[in-house]
């Protein structure tokens, strides 16, 4: 099952209410930045966090990993299809 949050604060609230197996997190969210959500999640939960964001600068990636994300993907991305 997939749960959706409207902003960072809503994401933290839902994760407190529902057991999740993984978090896919954007950086640019209203009310609470994705980096702050990642930091808060790492205080209390040991779940995989994937940042999926348009912020592709190296400094942003380093910050994400420093705060505890498990992986960092920059959108848009284009899958490679083999013939």
From TrEMBL:
It is found in: Cytoplasm. Its main location: cytoplasm. InterPro entries: CheY-like_superfamily, Sig_transdc_resp-reg_receiver, WalR-like. Keywords: Activator, Cytoplasm, DNA-binding, Phosphoprotein, Transcription, Transcription regulation. Residues 1-83 form the Response regulatory domain. One of its GO terms (biological process) is regulation of DNA-templated transcription. The modification 4-aspartylphosphate is found at residue 26. GO terms for molecular function: phosphorelay response regulator activity; transcription cis-regulatory region binding. GO terms for cellular component: cytosol; protein-DNA complex. This is Response regulator.
């Amino acid at each position: 099952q997939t749960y959706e949050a409207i902003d960072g604060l809503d994401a933290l609230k839902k994760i407190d209410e529902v057991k999740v197996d993984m978090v896919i997190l954007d950086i640019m969210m209203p009310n609470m930045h994705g980096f702050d959500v990642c930091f808060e999640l790492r205080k209390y939960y040991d779940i995989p966090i994937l940042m999926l964001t348009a912020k592709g600068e190296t400094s942003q990636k380093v910050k994400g990993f420093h705060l505890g994300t498990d992986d960092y993907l920059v959108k848009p991305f284009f899958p490679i299809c083999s013939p």
